[in-house]
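subagent[fold] <- orchestrator: predict structure for attached chain, return C-alpha cells only, no commentary.
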Amino acid sequence: MSSEPKKFTKEEKAAIALKAVSGDDAAKQELAEKHGVTVEIIEQWIRETGVQPVEEDVDEVALEASDDFKTSVDFGAVPDKLNYPRLVFWSIFGTAVIAIMIFALMAIYSYTIIGTEQQQSEASLYFDINELQQRDQATLGSFGVVDPEERIYRIPIDSAITIMAQDTDD
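subagent[fold] -> orchestrator:
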C-alpha cells in the first residue's frame, strides 16, 4: 500500500460497498486489497451510503389478499352481486312503457280506421243521394207506365202542372 490513500468518488464508494455487502468477510478482504483500503474503511462506506445487501435467492413470497379476491380465485371468476330491487324496478318500468306504447299505437290505429270508415260512409252517402236525385229527376221529367193493369201512367211534372192549370180555367 502506498502512504497516501487513493481518493474515491461517492459512486465508486457506493459500488464497492454494494459488492462488500453482497459477499461475506472474505469478499470484503479481497475488495480491500484490490482497492488499496482497509476492511474498516469499506465498512464505514457501507454505513455512509446506507447500502443494504441484495438477496438474490428469494424462495417465499407473501401476498395479502382480500376475502373477495380469495372467493374470486376459488370461484374462477367474480361472482355477480345483483341489485334485485333496481332490477325489478327497471323491469316493471320497461314493461309499463312498452304497454303504454302498444296502447297508444292501438288508439292511433283505431282513430285512423274510424276516420277512414266515416269518410267512406260520407262519400258513399253523398253518392247515393246524388244518384237518387238524378233518378227522381229523370222519373219526374219523363213519360212512362206505372201500372198497366190499372191504366196508371206517368207524365212529366211540367206537363201535369200545365194540364191542371187548364182544368181550373175551364
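orchestrator: received. Logging for downstream: DSSP finds six helices and two strands in the chain. Residues 72 and 78 are 5 Å apart (CA to CA).
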